[in-house]
Design a protein that fits this description.
The chain is α/β, with parallel strands linked by helices. It contains eight helices and 13 strands. About 40% of the residues lie in helices and about 20% in strands. The strands form two sheets. The protein has a seven-stranded mixed sheet with strand order 1-2-3-4-5-6-7, with no helix packed on it. It has a six-stranded mixed sheet with strand order 8-9-10-11-12-13, with no helix packed on it.
């Protein structure tokens, strides 16, 4: 400790010297105090930064971008592309409806990563429990995100034929797309519906009724549509395509036969399986034209004795410029249509 000298004769110089030494020591101690405080602050900032980074690393995937297309009805619109690692399988439209008590999810996307991002979007919108996860059909871009919702306590809902379709085709889809998408498809589970729709059923979300209808063979043999009665918003699954060329994986004749009953659904707008939101039922016009043209061309080619390979290259060709992904799917559609119509 530095203590000043006693005031008195002959002590002035010693006091001045001691006072100067004391001040230097005090200054030194103050500087040391400041350095210690700054060091502690730097450590605290580093720890805080590390915690922030850790939290960011452990945070759920970024939420999908969603649009509210009607009160309480939310949609993420997929891209019109083939499923790839880059788009994480996010090519189909997925969405959810919020009632007074609960939420229903309609399709979950083409990977668990997309499903988690959809779940994050739901949680950013509402804290209400997810009561139902509805799959409109068995194709990978609509069901591969199911596992993201497996621990939410929701009831999985689908067409009565959906379990069979998932069992028969699911492993093939998973193996085929893993070769394309790699670890993007990690954690995918083929979750069959616990509640299976045979004809029409209504689900209550709390002052909000969803009407579900199971269709005969059309786009697939397990197509399901969902109508939100309050807003008259129809989730049509892949029974409706806009801009993206329709894909025939069930029955061309069955799909054409379904267009009339589809058009009579009392909706004002439709969320197609692929493509933008549209007014109902005029949203069916382009799809009807394409499917009718495909059928007419195939029938004419069959009547002329044209071989299947030539039919695949020419049937529906006049629709080329009207649709995205035409080159990727039209020949496949023509082959399926030709094989079906050949036996009329």
């Amino acid at each position: 400790m530095c203590v000043p000298g006693t005031f008195g004769f002959g002590e002035s110089n010693r006091f001045t010297i001691r006072r100067g030494a004391c001040e230097r020591k005090r200054t030194g101690r103050f500087r040391k105090y400041v350095r210690d405080r700054l060091n502690r602050l730097a450590v605290a900032i580093a720890v805080l930064f590390g915690l922030i980074c850790l939290a960011y690393a452990q945070a759920p995937d970024n939420a999908l971008e969603i649009a509210q297309v009607a009160p309480g009805v939310f949609v993420h619109f997929g891209v019109n592309e083939l499923m790839t690692a880059e788009n994480e399988g996010g090519i189909a439209n997925v969405g959810f409806v919020v009632g007074d008590e609960a939420v229903a999810v309609i399709d979950t996307g083409g990977s668990v990563r997309e499903g988690r991002r959809l779940l994050a979007a739901i949680r950013a919108t509402t804290a209400k429990p997810i009561r139902y996860v509805i799959n409109t059909h068995a194709h990978p871009d609509h069901v591969f995100g199911n596992a993201a919702f497996a621990r939410e306590g929701a009831v999985f809902v689908g067409h009565r034929n959906l379990p069979r379709a998932l069992s028969a085709r699911g492993p093939f889809y998973l193996n085929a797309f893993r070769r394309i998408m790699g670890d993007v498809l990690d954690n995918v589970e083929l979750i069959a519906p616990q509640r299976q729709i045979v004809d029409d059923e209504r689900l209550d979300l709390g002052n909000r009724i969803l009407t579900l209808h199971a269709w005969r063979v059309a786009h697939t043999d397990n197509d399901l549509t969902v109508l939100d009665e309050i807003t008259q918003t129809l989730f049509a699954g892949d029974l409706v395509f806009l801009r993206h060329i329709p894909v025939v994986d069930g029955s061309l004749r069955g799909w054409l036969a379904a267009l009339g009953p589809l058009a009579r659904i009392p909706a004002s707008r439709v969320v197609p399986g692929h493509g933008p939101l549209a007014t109902w039922p005029v949203a069916l016009d382009d799809e009807r034209r394409y499917l009718e043209r495909l059928a007419q061309d195939c029938r004419a080619l069959i009547a002329a004795g044209t071989p299947l390979a030539a039919a695949a290259a020419t049937a529906g060709a006049s629709e080329n410029l009207r649709w995205e992904l035409f080159a990727e799917y039209n020949a496949r559609n023509a082959t399926a249509a030709f094989a079906e119509l050949e036996w009329e």
